[in-house]
Design a protein that fits this description.
384 residues, alpha/beta, six-stranded parallel sheet, 13 helices, globular, disordered N terminus
Length: 384
Amino acid sequence: MRTLIFVFVKENQMKIGILGTRGIPNHYGGFEQFAEFFATYAAKQGHEVFVYNSHSHPYKEKEFKGVHIVHCYDPENKIGTVGQFIYDLNCIRDARKRNFDIILQLGYTSSSVWFSLHPKNAVVVTNMDGLEWKRTKYSKIVKKALQIAERLAVKKSDYLISDSLGIQKYLKEKHNAESSYIAYGAHNFTKPNSEILKLYNVEAENFNMIMARFEPENNIEMVLEGVSKSSSNTPILVIGNYNTKFGAYLKNKFSSAEHIRFMGPIYDLEHLNNLRFYSNLYFHGHTVGGTNPSLLEAMASKALIASHDNDFNKGVLTENAYYFSSAEEVKKILNTIKKSDNLRFVENNYAVIASTFNWEKINEQYLQLFEQCLAGNFDRKQKQ
């Protein structure tokens, strides 16, 4: 699920709400992380910001670092995916009471059904996320429904945001739709602490790692197959919630490889930054979506990155990474590549975070876009 943040304009103050996440502080994924960083930033700039949280979110307070938190009933844990639609409906019904000027919708999958219920006096800005209908976990029927939802989001939103140039190009070619390119951001990591490694029983530059949701399109299986075929017994930390059908399958498949360590999810950013900083290789297998937050964080943590070879990842990493598209290529990377021999890649990626993907810049781009939308400086699409 995603969360809802909204903005209100009054004497240069905006009242902001974000729709489409499970809530803040982040306990789940990329959109939640963005919602947390952007909401707290906007609040510090004097804007009135509301974030919608699932009632099951562990944070139960009504305010977080100056951001208003609205808890809405979310039955997903009881009834499965259909619960997302009910949660989004509950968020939108509440939003209709609050006189928002801008609704920032993060993703569109379940919210698209309720587009007609969005407040008519609010400008709806939708971050289109990635190509959800390409995810392999979905059936043909669900994929078709997601394609319909995508068309609805394009048609019904007032403005669109693409988080990668690849998504921006896709929206133009597929839907003839204009969108504003605003990537995700990251904070450059500056305070490594090797003591944290003891908590995970690893040594500096003597372990590898991969961090992703346990979904086929993130290529965890491809990477681990390459690990099992390589001559290296260097530990690899597999970080993510493996309590899924696919996660159970992978744990069982690689149960005999002691150096493949399934760690479960890790949400402590300091711990993650240190693990990335001190790792030998950081594998990034994502293939669906735009600019992936975990990839930017790896760059910001001075990790040496081995990435799946696709346009989304190459658009961010350019020549400053090693690329793979098969288990054999993963095996070759593991057998031949060391971080200490590739510090130029590491430093180049770190510099790109500082110059291009820093959160201050990204957050300000969102605020500027909202101001332009509300001032009518863009050709506003008519609501259907």
